[in-house]
Amino acid sequence: MRRTQQLLYQKATLKLEMLHTPIRQLGLTIEGSFFEGAIPIVLGQLRRAGITELQPYFYVSTGYGCIASTAIISLGFYDFDPLLKEINYELRGWYYSAADLKMLLRHELGHAFCYTYKLYRSSEFRQLFQVQGNFFNTYPQGDTFDYNPWSKRFVNPNGDHYAQKHPDEDFAETFCVWLTPRSSWRRKYAKRSVILQKLQYTQRMAKQLGPLPPRVKSNPDWMYERVEDLHETVGEFMKATSKALAGYQALATGFVDPELNALFRPKPRLVNEQRIQAEYMPAAVFLRQQKTILISRVADWVGVDATVVHDLLKKLIQRAEVLELWSENALHEMKLVELSSCVTVLCANYKNTGKYLV
Fold first, then answer.
1. Each residue's pLDDT tens digit in the chain (358 positions)?
2. How far apart are CA 244 and CA 83, in angstroms?
């Protein structure tokens, strides 16, 4: 990789760019991610366990969960890219391993099984999992809950006592343990009668209901907080402080977002889309139009190889597209002068110091 590319695409720069990128612009999909392989594996475990008719929907969202009364399962966007996983750990202090993520999938499938077969309505379920009042409306708000660390009534596969949060989570955690291959739950919980009863109930319901269609049909249109609809940036979502952002910026050698934001503007807020298209142009399009002439002229003016200018402009175009910046047509001559000056200065920096940003 060329020195210019190393500067423009080093890890700290890419992380800082991600933090300033709207989540919807990350281009995250299940295809090509860890989940493309993990979901079929866990679904295979579900089918072999006897639950053959449950058809869950998976989508990328702000976190993990199963929409109430459905088999629609959301997945945390921060686990769809290695750099995002690192950023999440650095800013929020936790990280899911591949094994953790498969456990999460089993847990959410437990919710989906419970919801779509309406297990929570049966008297046996309510007694066994100690349901009091409305199953959904009694769910606690927030992430904190009281628990007994010495209790022998709940499975605790992750050591966080999450099963004690609510009967809904108690069943999902129990289901996760039951579905996990080689968990040896019969032997492990042989002396914990309440847990064993819950696991045996899960086994029995899977055998009885698994070959039958769910009682509730899920509509993919019920998905909410889809990644495609999230306009906030990764940094905003993760509540990155100014200090944290400054720490990334101190290490970044190719972060050109400030230059782009100074040159261009967000998409105009006009009701008439045709007017926007007539009076404005996406900044990435404007940059592409000027790319060839700028490469030759700036390289000549500054006395650098054309690749120095080419690589910089390529990065400017990429980020302008991600940031969804625009340029006003009436100001194109002025913008060309400003752009030429900006690119010239950055390339002169590279010639004199070996860095674009000084």
1. 899 999 999 999 999 999 999 999 999 999 999 999 999 999 999 999 999 999 999 999 999 999 999 999 999 999 999 999 999 999 999 999 999 999 999 999 999 999 999 999 999 999 999 999 999 999 988 888 999 999 999 999 999 999 999 999 999 999 999 999 999 999 999 999 999 999 999 999 999 999 999 999 999 999 999 999 999 999 999 999 999 999 999 999 999 999 999 999 998 876 677 787 888 999 999 999 999 999 999 999 999 999 999 999 999 999 999 999 999 999 999 999 999 999 999 999 999 999 999 9
2. 16
Q: Domain for residue 128, yes or no?
A: yes
| Residue found by looking up tokens 């006897």 in the block | 50
101 and 129 part of one domain: yes
Exposed (0-12), middle (13-18) or buried (19+): which is 221, by Cβ within 10 Å? exposed
Last residue of a domain, one of 228, 260, 286: 228
Asked if residue 14 belongs to a domain, the reply is no
User: E strand or H helix at 18, and its extent?
Assistant: helix 11-19
Q: Examine residue 91 and state whether it is found in any structural domain, yes or no.
A: yes
Please choose, from the candidates 188, 142, 145, 149, the residue with its C-alpha nearest in 3D space to the C-alpha of residue 167.
145
What angle is formed at CA 188 by the lines to CA 182 and CA 189, rounded to 5 degrees?
125
Say which amino acid occupies 259.
E
Residues 149 and 185 in one domain: yes
Distance CA 337, CA 349 (A): 18
Task: Look up residue 267 and give its two tokens.
Answer: 């998409």
Distance CA 115, CA 69 (A): 5
Cβ contact 104:96 at 8 Å: yes
The span from the CA of 167 to the CA of 117, in Å, is: 16
Angle (CA) 316 321 326, round 5°? 95
Together in a domain, 148 and 78? yes
Domain enclosing residue 331, as ranges: 3-9+243-353
- Among the candidates 228, 255, 280, a domain finishes at 228
What DSSP designation does 141 have? Answer: S
Number of domains present in the structure of the chain: 2
